[in-house]
Amino acid sequence: MAVVLGPNRYGKAETRVVRITRDGGVHHLKDCNVSVSLSGDMGAVHRVGDNAAVLPTDSQKNTVFAFARKYGIAEIEEFALLLARHFVDSQPTIHHARVEVEEYFWDRVRTEGATDQGQHSFVRSGREIRTCVVHHDGPSSQATIVSGLKGLTVLNSTGSEFHGFIEDEYTTLRPTRDRVLATDVNAAWRHRGEHEDFGTSYERARRALLDAFAGTHSLSLQQTLYAMGGQVLEACAEICEIHLAMPNKHHFTVDLEPFGLDNPQEVFFAADRPYGLIEGAVLTDDAPDAGFAWE
Amino acid sequence: MAVVLGPNRYGKAETRVVRITRDGGVHHLKDCNVSVSLSGDMGAVHRVGDNAAVLPTDSQKNTVFAFARKYGIAEIEEFALLLARHFVDSQPTIHHARVEVEEYFWDRVRTEGATDQGQHSFVRSGREIRTCVVHHDGPSSQATIVSGLKGLTVLNSTGSEFHGFIEDEYTTLRPTRDRVLATDVNAAWRHRGEHEDFGTSYERARRALLDAFAGTHSLSLQQTLYAMGGQVLEACAEICEIHLAMPNKHHFTVDLEPFGLDNPQEVFFAADRPYGLIEGAVLTDDAPDAGFAWE
Amino acid sequence: MAVVLGPNRYGKAETRVVRITRDGGVHHLKDCNVSVSLSGDMGAVHRVGDNAAVLPTDSQKNTVFAFARKYGIAEIEEFALLLARHFVDSQPTIHHARVEVEEYFWDRVRTEGATDQGQHSFVRSGREIRTCVVHHDGPSSQATIVSGLKGLTVLNSTGSEFHGFIEDEYTTLRPTRDRVLATDVNAAWRHRGEHEDFGTSYERARRALLDAFAGTHSLSLQQTLYAMGGQVLEACAEICEIHLAMPNKHHFTVDLEPFGLDNPQEVFFAADRPYGLIEGAVLTDDAPDAGFAWE
Amino acid sequence: MAVVLGPNRYGKAETRVVRITRDGGVHHLKDCNVSVSLSGDMGAVHRVGDNAAVLPTDSQKNTVFAFARKYGIAEIEEFALLLARHFVDSQPTIHHARVEVEEYFWDRVRTEGATDQGQHSFVRSGREIRTCVVHHDGPSSQATIVSGLKGLTVLNSTGSEFHGFIEDEYTTLRPTRDRVLATDVNAAWRHRGEHEDFGTSYERARRALLDAFAGTHSLSLQQTLYAMGGQVLEACAEICEIHLAMPNKHHFTVDLEPFGLDNPQEVFFAADRPYGLIEGAVLTDDAPDAGFAWE
User: Fold this and answer.
1) How far is CA A74 from CA A14, A88, A129, B251, C81, in A?
2) D72: which of A56, B101, B243, C173 is 20 to 30 A away, CA to CA?
3) What average pLDDT does chain D have?
4) Which EC class heads this enzyme's classification (chains A, B, C, D) (predicted)?
5) Plot region of B204 (φ>0 → left; ψ -120 to 50 → alpha; else → beta)
6) D interface mutation test: which of B250, B255, B259, B268 has the most D CBs within 10 A?
């Protein structure tokens, strides 16, 4: 028996970069968290600690900041591609780069009256985080681009049923024709390739997720998940596959009978754990092979 | 030397109640986290485990749910007052109640097209949490009401300076005429008394906090804090005191010189720890004694 | 109506300092999180942004690191006192210092065989965090010293009852003669004054907390809390007051009857929220006035 | 273009079960968090909300509790296997089960004196969490079993170097011959098959991880990772592959020169973000195909 090295990667995780662009007195803000993972000729560093093939993670961090200055951060997918290509193309020992970016959203503070402070004052907005993961694998091959979001919390206060399920010896759940359906949407979608408009694509995909969640009379969270994935694919021709992970955030109807009260779906206990967890992929039948896109 | 019991309280913390109100097909949603703390004749339970004076925390939880059904949850301050008075007024052994409520915000999902799904579909919105702490101390005395918010993250990308400070032997910081100023606003304000419009009051106070943050050319975070507190007091006659705790979320200008790049306040590293922490109270000169309001 | 400044303080929070002491090849490790809060002549900085009285929080951070080098970190209380006195005594505009330190524990890695690696290899141990809060208020007055711990999670699998409580119209809880009692102990105790042996004192207080938790047949968590506080005071003559906050981490006996199974206190569901929360102070009848010790 | 369903699974996540076993007056405690994921004939539920093939996640939760009563929880791997086989073998529509278990450790409270309280009093110990992930894919195939741990935080205060790395135009890091090396070990190892002694295996693997971390004079964290993986494989013939993810928790030597102080590797700033992240697999050259073990 011999010990061998399997798949490996290394990099600098969670470089928190804020980029401000000044357009006269009007400022624009981009708030990102960038994680780089590189792989390549890493046998020697693992086996004997020879770092000759290793670009320090500290240099990766510096590159993130320097590129933010040189190129700005327009769409996070573009910034991730720029970084991924740089590492692979500039270092002979680095054969593959994975770059993940999270983006946090800010709104302008709209002040009343005739002030210009709104030009450089911002308030963190929304709860969801926009994400992307880009892989680049050598100069000749095509990069893969996965965009997504996490932390989009949604709730339907009616329009959700659950019945007709298997009842085994451990089943005590009763069928219901009206329940609260709530989830945190964690979604990641694969682009067919590079394109010009990741910002619009994001808005369109997010819109499709919300529309399908709200617009589906749900017989199960799986059905809702599939409808959401399908609607994204229909709305976005540039996307060929989507992965969704959605916890069923249980809202239990509280039994108020002991207190002489009915509860016509009005008062709920929002539970923490355990929770259902529904995960699924939806794709187009012509989706190209994903390769390493989801790693 | 004898051992004696000092101040004490007990209760059920973090009852997560969601209240849905149906207005025909249009639903309204209130999402709260309620924590009750009671005190009174609790000598025996501490000393010998005699529970005769103890209303179980489980009953407190039940009361939260039952009251949500019976009375609804309009403004969280009113719901907290209702609960606090109930516990003190209905139980001879309970002399004081503290009720804290957090409220989480939801927006309606606005779907495109002629659908009515927006009537009962919601998405968690914003990042701040509305809060209140109410104290009630026996039937004859006035309750105290503190409202507030936490998690309101704001940033000015210019309009902030810091110089003229003490320079001791451990000072290496250089004065600056232009920096990023960012903080998470944690604020709590004391009402002069009960009134009819806690919802409007909240919006007005929040607006004043944002306006003052954006509208203050800052020479120090303390100055900004004081301006924010003052603006709330000026905008809201019903409020007599405000406490603010604001971390200085450092955004360090990255030194890009080693890479042959300048950095005219464009690229920042958003640091985690350590951070400055500025805390202060601002009040009106006619504010009545706070009593136990801030406990 | 005029707006006035109330109590305020500012400082650098959460400076993460690790101090290694080399005793020949044997290393010693101290891992701390230091938060400084200063107050004094801070009217001008709040009102007009004049920083002449402000020692920058950056300088405070530097002082923490420099003092760790110059004086080492023996007991956290001593290190906190050293810092608190330095800020007040060296700066005329600073009249009061509050220094809080958290300490994280590490064990040596005991390797098998005749290696000396254990001399400088460590593994984070335990789950509780040792804490202290020190106040110093000018050169003439005595400092106050509060030590404590948080995150000490304990559980008795029997020896706990709960019955004889108030039953109001919202009570559905049934009395029990045997339940699981579990809590996270958060404790802070006030020393009568400075002394020579904070390390031994900590161990003795911690031991008393555990002994009393394990040794008390409990009729309520309040009774257990009071016994724990009392045992600390009895074991530690140097301590005159203790504050305890202990969540009742509910472990519900699962109803297995629907599956034809009994459950003689063997299978429990460990719930998250809501939870009981019991808070109380225990002190000696000769405890001196606490002053600002608990702020 | 048509939309198709890709890989999917669903189940109940994070069922928190505590199992107490009474051996006369001596109690034994097992504290686990169980997450079940099932897959199978799930086309209809996704496409039209037909739940006929769906065993409710609520029933899965009930099964966890009932099995804890019927079979006890000896080693988490065995309990996971029992559950995984039950779901697949009892439900024709369920073809594959993934069961993940986390175990939290408790020590007995050892009280002084002649008390028997230690028999049923426990304190949460250690910081690491033992984990397992089991897959079962129909009655005929072999299950896969991955065990592991997370949250094992270790630090070497010397015996670590980093030099000889690539220096590109964004490199400012200086080579070092002595640094602090600290990480949180997250490890998962694949067993060759079922065996009789998962408890001993866990202890042996954990021991090998600690020994190798402490016993490796490190030229890079990658070298340490590989040594740790190799030592587990050498110590544990029952294990054929191990995956390690180890953040480089940077401890920066603080520059104290501005204060007239040297810093011979004594005072460090423990940084939060960014951090290096080193991930790698180590396996034996005869390791059987992993199949779905790592999903």
Assistant:
1) 19, 21, 16, 20, 50
2) C173
3) 96
4) oxidoreductase
5) alpha
6) B259
pLDDT average, residue stretch B249-258: 98
All CATH 3.10.270.10 domain ranges in chain A, comma separated: 9-138, 142-288+291-295
Residue B139's alpha-carbon distances to B65, B96, C58, C111, in angstroms, are 23, 10, 50, 66
CATH class in words for D10-138 = alpha beta
Q: Show Cβ contacts of residue A129 under 8 Å, excluding neighbours closer than 6 positions.
A: A102, A103, A104, A149, A150, A151
Q: Which H or E element spans position A21?
A: strand A15-23
Among B16, B55, B283, beta carbon nearest to C166: B55
Residues 6+ apart with CB under 8 A from C260: none
Q: Do B2 and C91 touch (CB under 8 A)?
A: no
Tokens read off for C163 = 């019955």
CA of B3, closest CA in chain C: separation in Å? 5
Catalytic residue, from D86, D135, D250, D251: name it.
D250
The predicted model gives C169-187 an average pLDDT of: 98
A187 touches A149 (CB < 8 A): yes
Please give the residue of chain C at the shortest CA–CA distance from A170.
Answer: C259
Q: How far apart are CA D148 and CA D164, in angstroms?
A: 33
Q: Outline which parts of chain C fall under CATH 3.10.270.10.
A: 9-137, 142-295
Q: Exposure of A285 by Cβ count < 10 A (0-12 exposed, 13-18 middle, 19+ buried)?
A: exposed
Q: Which CATH class is domain B10-137?
A: alpha beta
Contacts of D231 in chain C (CB under 8 A): none
- Within chain D, all domains assigned CATH 3.10.270.10 are found at 10-138, 142-295
Chain A positions touching B261 (Cβ under 8 A) are 66, 69-70
D37 Rama class: left (phi>0) / alpha (psi -120 to 50) / beta = beta
Backbone angles phi, psi at C166, to 5 degrees: -65, 135
Q: Which CATH number fits domain C9-137: 3.10.270.10, 3.40.50.11750, 3.40.50.1370, 3.30.460.10?
A: 3.10.270.10
Give B102-142 pLDDT, tens digit per residue.
999 999 998 765 456 679 999 999 899 999 999 999 866 78
- Topology (CATH level 3) of domain A9-138: Urate Oxidase (3.10.270)
Superfamily assignment of A142-288+291-295 in CATH?
Urate Oxidase; (3.10.270.10)
Whether residue C70 lies in the annotated active site: no
Q: Rounded to a whole number, what is the distance in Å from the CA of D127 to chain A's nearest CA?
A: 21
Q: Nearest to residue C259, comparing CAs of D59, A255, D57, D90?
A: D59
d(CA A198, CA A204): 10
pLDDT at A244 over 50: yes
A180, B18 Cβ separation under 8 angstroms: yes
Cβ neighbours of residue B241 closer than 8 Å, sequence gap 6 or more:
B189, B190, B281, B282, B283, B284, B287, B290, C6
Separation between Cα atoms, residue C195 and residue C193, nearest integer Å: 6
Rounded CA-CA distance A77/D246 in Å is 26
Nearest to B271 by CA among B253, B249, B292: B249
Cα separation, C274 vs A271, whole angstroms: 9
- Residue ranges, comma separated, of all CATH 3.10.270.10 domains in chain B are 10-137, 142-295
Query: What's the CATH superfamily of B142-295?
Result: Urate Oxidase; (3.10.270.10)
> Is the Cα torsion angle B69, B72, B76, B81 positive or negative in sign?
negative
- pTM here is 0.98
